[in-house]
Amino acid sequence: MIRYEPVSFCLISSDLEEYNMNTCDVLITYCWNRVGYNILRSLSARGLRVCVADVSAVNICSRSRWCAGSFTYPDPFTREEEFITTLLEIVSRVRPRVLLPTHDEGIIIRRHASRFPAGLVIPLSPHTLLTDLSDKAVATDIARSLNIPVPASFDPSLPVNSFPLVFKTRVGNSAKGVFVVSSPDRLARLRAAYDTSECMLQEFVPGSDYSVDCIRMGDFFFASVYRALVTKTHGGGTTTQREMVDLPELVGYARRFLDQVDYYGVCGIDFRYDPATRRAAFIEVNARYTGGLATPMCAGFDIPWIHYRLAIGEGPVPVPVVRSGVRTKWILGDMITLVTRVCSAGLSRAELRSLTDFRFDAFDDYCPGDRRAFLGQLRYYFSKLLRHRRLNP
């Protein structure tokens, strides 16, 4: 069993009075996508001044009318020291009360937390825990040890007789490095292309993708569940349409897991779940904000606002009232999915109706009166398409 040291409240020091002469309340990193946009919308709607930073200068957040300031930095995953140095300069300039990473750059920021100014709040778990949870094999072992159901696993280097299977890299996101395998030939090709010691091979669990979005900070815990209606890739992955559901069983599994590792912050835990058989299976932990953030927010669970309030010690936080049945859509994600399905000759009539449906309670990437943000998103994705010849940045 892996055990972790208790998490202390992540203030670099208690010297808040000196630090409080700020020009913004929150600085958000990794802001090119809809996740950062929904955090920006949530916090700015509460009267906070929110600045954003990312590798890209033009994106959905930098063009939003709610953005109080936009900055760029070097790629945190290929130029770590330059990223931290630049981020320190940005922090020195805008003096935020809270630095809020939204993705895996949080691991890097947390690793260098001691270099940031006194009083700055970075509401994340220790980088050692975040790193461990990003490894799907480690997270699966923890779940298994807690009697949380997991898919059957196989040695990725040995022969297997049953299909379909899921072959995936131990580290990855947005369905990158995840393959549903239906034949021995396909499996052999994947084994030749990847280092199997860095991969997992599991049974394919019927059902749909479900995400348990959680906040666990000190004595506070709350979670909600949404199910995927449409995903960009067949077999799971990034969701473009979602619906809130009431599944206390999955929330219980998530809390058991997070209590065991003494998690601190926001995260999403993914499951496969089949309503017909009621079988659930743990898939992975996203130790960060999830791509479907707009869904629980629309349903009454304003995750960024609660995260912020807990981070600065402002409470008590009322228990959210979450409405089941709320549905949200990522417009650009559905556009990309439609193009991808057409190009692969894999578009059914049912999928066409679903992808062109706009009868939703809210949208991940569009808000009335903020058209420039949506156009910023389009420009970002188009630039990535021209540069990398793919639509999954």
Explain the overall architecture.
The protein is globular, with a radius of gyration of 21 Å. Mean pLDDT is 90; it is low at 1-21. It is built from 13 helices and 15 strands. α2 crosses α10 (303-311) and α4 (105-111) packs antiparallel against α5. By secondary structure, it is an alpha/beta fold. Helices cover 34% and strands 21% of the residues. The strands form three sheets. It has a seven-stranded mixed β-sheet with strand order 13-12-9-10-11-14-15. Strands 3-2-1-4 form a four-stranded parallel β-sheet, with helices on both faces. The longest helix is centred in the C-terminal third of the chain and has 18 residues, at 371-388. The chain has three domains: 16-122, Rossmann fold (3-Layer(aba) Sandwich); 152-203, Dna Ligase, domain 1; 208-329, ATP-grasp fold, B domain (D-amino Acid Aminotransferase, Chain A, domain 1). β10 (220-231) and β11 (239-245) form a beta hairpin.
**Strands across the major sheet, in which order?**
13-12-9-10-11-14-15
Total tally of structural domains: 3
Write the CATH architecture name of the largest domain.
Answer: 2-Layer Sandwich
Portion in strands: 15-25%
CATH topology of the largest domain: D-amino Acid Aminotransferase, Chain A, domain 1
* CATH class category name of the largest domain: Alpha Beta
Oligomer: single chain
* General form: globular
Tell me the structural class.
alpha/beta
Average pLDDT, to the nearest integer? Answer: 90
Radius of gyration: 21 Å
The total strand number stands at 15
Question: Counting H and I runs of at least 4 residues, what is the number of helices?
Answer: 13
User: Helix proportion of residues, in percent?
Assistant: 25-40%
Straight-line distance between termini? 35 Å
CATH superfamily of the largest domain: ATP-grasp fold, B domain
Runs in which pLDDT lies below 50 for 5 or more consecutive residues are 1-21
